[in-house]
Write a structure and sequence with these properties.
366 residues, alpha/beta, globular, 37% helix
Length: 366
């Protein structure tokens, strides 16, 4: 599929006539005296921060190029935003008419897809994951495609697939994702949320994002620096897609989406030396995950333990609420996932450093 005109046809019709807001930074560059943005001449509380009085770039070329190099894609295929959560919002705002269009999700999955859709007035279509032959929960592609082609109800414009999965921790089968992309074709956009991609094996097909984007122009990949890069406080994420799709998102994103400290910190984190440090910490996290999994195998109350390729482990227990409360009272916070479809009495434990995991294992019942 080389023709990408269907992307502009999928956007909300009125966006085609919208001219993006031309902020001071977006419309002009150069100069030595900046008097075009109603900025203060300096920052009184932080006089040593000589750039904090200035609005940041609309899209930092340095940051976007750094991530493009990291992901192996072209600069024009990258949009940086306030975490991948903002990218979810931008996609729904760009492609879903309120009370007319819908987003599809596959529970159990990340809850913000449904919340963002609901706050925008878009319908939510749930095609729950189904148990595969190996016991894992995977995409029900046949049902998903049938619902996309069902013209009797609201039109599905966006399909959200979280892989590696939150909250399950497994990698969604790459063959099923490709099957979905092939069968959906130009009828809808597929959003592959890869917040935990760094934790999967380097030879995973889902890491080859440039190849996937070239092959499937209806694909959008969401990434973040919040997980493996350890920059959750900076709120920096990325949407990777065909340039035509990125241009649509650029129409609706805020004039200055990322603060200057976030741009600076994120760009530094994408340097070669920082990526090496991230990979070193990732190895430590994976070692602690395997340690936790081994310990849980010895605990009789761990009814079942979900396989994980991420920095967390999902466990079915006799009483999730009681265990979460017990840990909380001891100062250790874990997450109750029992409200998720099919995950009754399940807890999710994030992987911390060795000291944090020592304390967790002290607190958990023997």
């Amino acid at each position: 599929m080389s023709n990408t005109s269907f992307i502009t046809q999928l956007q909300r019709p009125h966006l085609a006539a919208i001219t993006p807001y031309q902020s001071a930074r977006r419309s002009m560059s150069g100069g030595s005296v900046w008097l075009n943005a109603n900025e203060a001449p300096q920052t009184p509380a932080f006089p040593e921060q000589q750039s904090w009085n200035r609005y940041p770039s609309f899209q930092s070329t340095a940051l976007n190029q750094a991530y493009a190099d990291y992901a192996g894609v072209a600069l024009e295929q990258v949009l940086s935003c306030r975490g991948s959560d903002e990218a979810i919002e931008l996609l729904i705002r760009s492609f879903c008419e309120p009370r007319e269009d819908a987003v599809m999700m596959t529970t159990p999955t990340y809850g913000m897809y449904a919340i963002s859709a609901a706050t925008h007035g878009a319908d939510v279509v749930d095609c729950p994951l189904q148990k595969a032959d190996d016991g894992s929960l995977q995409l029900d592609v046949e049902t998903m495609v049938a619902r996309v082609r069902d013209t009797s109800t609201s039109r599905v414009k966006l399909i959200f697939v979280c892989s590696p999965s939150n909250p399950l921790g497994n990698e969604v089968d790459a063959a099923r994702i490709e099957q979905l992309l092939q069968q959906v074709g130009e009828d809808a956009l597929v959003v592959l949320d890869q917040a935990y991609i760094e934790f999967v094996a380097e030879d995973s097909a889902q890491r080859q994002v440039a190849d996937l984007l070239a092959k499937y122009p209806q694909l959008i990949v969401l990434r973040t620096l919040s997980k493996a890069f350890g920059l959750a406080a900076l709120r920096c994420g990325f949407a990777l897609a065909q340039p035509e799709l990125i241009d649509i998102l650029r129409k609706v994103i805020a004039p200055y989406p990322l603060p200057e400290p976030t741009i600076a910190g994120a760009t530094t984190a994408l340097s070669a030396s920082a990526i090496a440090q991230m990979n070193a910490q990732l190895e430590q996290t994976l070692a602690q995950r395997e340690r936790l999994l081994a310990e849980l195998q010895e605990r009789s109350w761990a009814n079942s333990i979900w396989p994980s390729v991420t920095n967390f482990v999902l466990v079915n227990v006799p009483d999730a609420a009681a265990l979460v409360t017990q840990c909380q009272q001891a100062g250790v916070l874990i997450r109750n996932q029992s409200s998720q479809r099919g995950l009754g009495q399940c807890i999710r434990i994030s992987i911390g450093n060795a000291t944090e995991m020592d304390r967790l294992l002290e607190v958990l019942p023997a």
